[in-house]
């Protein structure tokens, strides 16, 4: 949802998911 609204880089999403996991 965040990457869809903000358009964050795919790498940032992966890092965010890794930290959130």
SSE inventory with pairings:
Elements: H1 2-6, H2 10-20
Please, could you describe this protein's structure?
This protein is mostly helical and 21 residues long. It contains 2 helices and no strands. Helix content is 76%, strand content 0%. The longest helix has 11 residues, at 10-20. It is elongated. It starts with a helix and ends with a helix.
* β-strand number: 0
What sort of overall outline do the alpha carbons produce when their principal axes are compared?
Answer: elongated
Oligomer state equals single chain
Cα distance spanning the termini: 16 Å
Which structural category fits the helices and strands? mainly alpha
Number of helices: 2
Beta-strand residue percentage = under 5%
Mean pLDDT: 72
Rg, alpha carbons: 8 Å
Indicate the low-confidence ranges by residue numbers. Answer: none
- Pattern of helices and strands: HH
Main sheet overview: none
Helical fraction equals over 70%
Summarize the structure.
With 21 residues, the chain is mainly α. It is built from two helices and no strands.
């Amino acid at each position: 949802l965040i990457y869809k609204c903000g358009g964050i880089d795919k790498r940032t999403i992966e890092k965010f998911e890794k930290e959130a996991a």
